[in-house]
Write a structure and sequence with these properties.
Length: 123
């Protein structure tokens, strides 16, 4: 495997990106990220109160998010406090950027074509 100079291989980078995309593929996990973004760090119970599921099920979602690097966990006594870690989302944005540019160019082209078309006269 080739190294990118920072001590990580291209395969490691791909594995990380795959974990992030897999984590984001689930609506519950996206909602957890939104709650942490909007409400800041929160204990598990505060997050669990937003979902109609048992706490072990939410814990599985939190584990996937931790493994993807999207959240971090800090123990405070008996509580576990979760915090959003947004850095991996920048990698997703970098990956999506060429596709955004692609669609922006296509929509601009469509707009130009529609502007050149004659308006229909009412009958």
């Amino acid at each position: 495997m080739t190294s990118n100079g920072a001590g990580t291989s291209a395969a490691d980078t791909t594995d990380t990106a795959d974990r992030v995309f897999a984590a984001l593929a689930n609506a519950t996990r996206r909602e957890v990220l939104r709650l942490l973004r909007d409400g800041g760090p929160q204990p598990v119970q505060a997050l669990a109160d937003h979902f109609d599921m048992r706490r072990p099920s939410l814990s599985e979602h939190l584990k996937v998010l931790r493994d993807a690097g999207l959240v971090s966990e800090q123990r405070a006594g008996r509580q576990r406090i979760y915090r959003l870690e947004a850095a991996p989302l920048a990698d997703v944005q970098d990956w999506l950027h060429p596709y955004e540019r692609f669609w922006r160019e296509r929509l601009t082209g469509l707009g130009d074509l529609l502007d050149r078309m004659p308006d229909d006269e009412p009958t």
